[in-house]
Amino acid sequence: MFKIIHVKKQGKYNLNKQLQNLGSKVTMGKSLKLKQNKILIMCGGQGKRLGTISKKLPKPLMNIGKRTILEYKLEQYQRQGFNDFIFCVGYKGELIQTLVKQINGIHAEFSDAGESAGILARLFYAKPLFYDQVLMTYGDTFTDLQLSALYSVHQKSNNEATIVVAPIKNPFGLVEFNAEQQVTFFKEKPILNYFIGYAVINKSALELIPDKVINMPDGEGIVTFFKILMGMDLLGCYFHSGLQTTFNTQEEFEKVEQEIINFCTAIEDT
Predict the structure, then answer these.
(1) Where does 23-146 have alpha helices with state H?
(2) How does strand 38-43 pair with strand 133-138?
(3) Bridge partner list, 89
């Protein structure tokens, strides 16, 4: 089943009123069964750093072997029992729709907020399509994350959103210094944690966002949204140490391509 929606700009929200009401609000979605939760996949970006490649195809449709990264993602989700998807399209969205409509065993809906919409705007405009919470993922990111475990952690918390973080080793020594140029901190190649583009987000959290944040370009809006929740002690995290890959350049794509093929080959052999 397929549905295409074109969402109009929403009215302004009274942020102060929403914050006042928050104290008496019961976190939504705790009684939902996993099969009722939808996965929202961001597929609208242009991928400009990929150069001429992305002039023909959106990033999620780049081929890895004989299939696209989007097909690998959907197969991984279906393997875990998730079959209900929202695709936030934009740039060359008709190509995403054509591919998805050829995939059996899934329920797909499409939200088109326009090519210039930022990540948060795409999420906000797709709000009518999901229940009390949704799992947001980036269309160019692949991981072996256990989604049921992520949902469980989120539902046991009082957080409005739970983001997935993974470790990364900084290749450089980090240095901090004061106004007198005296070094106050030095750490060689530290292990840092970064957001990998997966998050469970309550629908109620989106009511806390003013228009000026919703309409921020690219990833600025979603980062500001998370900072608002962080300041209210309503942003949790889920640590993932397994496979996670993404790409922004041709060189990164070549590395990701081999990692995904190796992972899927291992799965098929078990």
Answers:
(1) 69-79, 93-100, 119-125
(2) parallel
(3) 43, 112
Tens of pLDDT, residues 155-194:
999 999 999 998 877 778 889 999 999 999 998 888 888 8
Strand partners, 237: 163
Which pairs count as long-range contacts for 65-70, CB under 8 Å and 24+ apart, including other chains? 65/257, 65/261, 68/99, 69/139, 69/140, 69/142, 69/256, 69/260, 70/41, 70/43, 70/96, 70/99, 70/100, 70/139
238 vs 34, 42, 79, 92, 109, CA distance in Å? 17, 20, 21, 32, 27
**Three-class SS state of 203:** helix
pTM for this entry: 0.78
Strands 174-177 and 183-187: antiparallel
Give the C-alpha separation, 122 to 210, whole Å: 15
Calpha distance 7→232 (Å, rounded): 29
Number of H helices, E strands in the chain: 8, 14
How many residues does this entry show for the chain?
A: 270
Q: What is the mean pLDDT of each run of 10 residues along the chain (270 residues)?
A: 46 39 37 66 75 71 84 92 95 93 93 92 95 93 92 96 88 89 88 90 94 90 96 96 72 64 60
In angstroms, the CA 160 to CA 26 distance is 10
Percentage with pLDDT > 90 across the chain: 50
- Three-state secondary-structure class, residue 212: helix
DSSP letter string, 116-181: T--HHHHHHHTGGGS-SEEEEEETT-EE---HHHHHHHHHTS--SEEEEEEEEE-SS-EEEE-TT-
